[in-house]
Design a protein that fits this description.
By secondary structure, the protein is of the alpha/beta class. The protein is built from 13 helices and 15 strands. Helices cover 39% and strands 21% of the residues.
Length: 410
């Protein structure tokens, strides 16, 4: 069956979704983007029609997807970019699968992979290299920390928006006492946390493998990547990254082996960290049933994974989506967080001379860059205003202090 008339629906409004939209747009695929509001960067792309739904989960999302599918003719290919939408779609998979082309593993497997302790147990069962980990569900689990070698990382077991609004993505902890102190603050908001042994290395020792796994577990597309900088440094999300061609085979084999072992199919990736002490790659966490934040880095290196997935699901040869520029390395960067990361920890000589591309700017699709520029100007204006008001308040306090001193002298 030809996929020439089959559209795609991308759920999400962030940079992740923007990368998917542009990747599909490069192949001429008609795209609709579904987001919570028009004030999201992906909604400014010329490559997609816009549909607003809030929230982007639960019954509201399912109703919107059903309405879009009715208008689409042939069943569209569905791309997810956020964990909350993955959960909703998986819970309503029978209804969604009757109208959309989307490949998912079994629901229980998916839920386990989305939970850090669930992933830990699956990885240990498969014999995959993972750092040791302790699961915290209450203060009663704290004594188990004595089995770990510190330093470690304290982080939530799964994505939680209440946690994200108050706490960091993760905390480097030096002792069980550090964990106990932080857990006392975090537990009332989210008791479900994990403490994972720290793998020695910098941001640039973090690698990843983006894949699409198709029919019968066959790997349709695979891209090896490497972070350059994170924000915040050491424990944050990707600020800049590039290809890791020299480690392509090792990363692909490890990722394929794990996905096959747990029965995973669809869109996914695995994050690794290379330990400087022994040179081994250790699995840190997977991203499953959705695209990764830095998904577009594969496309700029000639491996267009969203387009390859669309081709696979519509019966079109994915060859046109897979033209890897293997000798080439390009830095994909989120400009603001990358600038902050450089300011905090300096540059990286191995990568600073490489050509780079902004996650926002494309001459063929300038709208998202103007979105970013507006936000950048407003943020700078607010910063200037805060500094002026702060200086004015300090001057007034100084004047009051002098007047008080004069009055007391008289």
């Amino acid at each position: 069956m030809s996929g020439s008339n089959v559209s795609a629906v991308v759920v999400g409004g962030g940079l992740n979704a923007l990368g998917v939209i542009r990747s599909l747009g490069a192949g001429g695929v008609p795209v609709t983007v579904v987001a919570a509001a028009t004030g999201f960067v992906a909604m400014d792309s010329r490559h997609a029609r816009k549909r607003v739904v809030s929230p982007v989960e639960g019954p509201a999302l399912i109703a919107t997807l059903e309405a879009l599918a009715r208008d689409a003719g042939e069943s569209p290919v569905l791309f997810l970019t956020e964990e909350k939408t993955v959960r909703t779609v998986s819970e309503h998979r029978d209804a969604v699968a009757s109208r959309y082309r989307i490949r998912l593993p079994a629901h229980d497997t998916l839920m386990a992979l989305m939970h850090k302790q669930g992933f830990q147990e699956l990885a240990e069962r498969c014999g995959a290299p993972v750092p040791r980990c302790v699961h915290l569900r209450s203060h009663e689990d704290l004594p188990a920390l004595r089995a770990l070698k510190f330093p470690c990382v304290l982080k939530p077991s799964e994505k939680n928006y209440q946690y994200g609004a108050r706490f960091k993505k993760g905390y480097v902890v030096r002792s069980p006492a550090d964990v106990e102190r932080l857990y006392a603050e975090i537990a009332p908001v989210l008791p479900d946390m994990v403490v994972q042994e720290w793998i020695d290395g910098d941001d640039s020792d973090v690698y990843f493998c983006l894949q699409y796994v198709g029919e019968n577990g066959a790997t349709v597309a695979s891209f090896p990547g490497r972070k350059i900088r994170s924000w915040p440094p050491k424990i944050g999300g990707t600020a800049s990254c590039t290809a890791a061609w020299t480690d392509a085979d090792a990363l692909a084999r490890a990722t394929q082996g794990f996905f096959a072992g747990v029965g995973f199919t669809g869109m996914g990736s695995m994050e690794y960290k290379r330990d400087r002490r022994d040179g081994r790659f250790y699995m840190i966490e997977p991203t499953v049933a959705r695209t990764d934040f830095q998904q577009e880095v594969a496309t700029v290196h000639g491996i267009n994974i969203p387009l390859a997935a669309w081709c696979h699901e519509t019966g079109v040869s994915p060859a046109r989506a897979l033209r890897p520029n293997r000798p080439m390395r390009i830095v994909w960067r989120e400009p603001e967080t990358d600038r902050q990361s450089i300011a905090a920890q300096g540059g990286n000589g191995e990568f600073d001379a490489l050509p780079s591309c902004s996650a926002y700017w494309r001459c063929s699709d300038p709208g998202p860059w103007f979105y970013w520029l507006r936000r950048w100007v407003l943020a700078r204006a607010r910063g200037v205003r805060r500094r002026i008001l702060g200086r004015f308040a300090a001057e007034r306090m100084d004047v009051r202090s002098k007047n008080t001193s004069t009055t007391e002298m008289h």
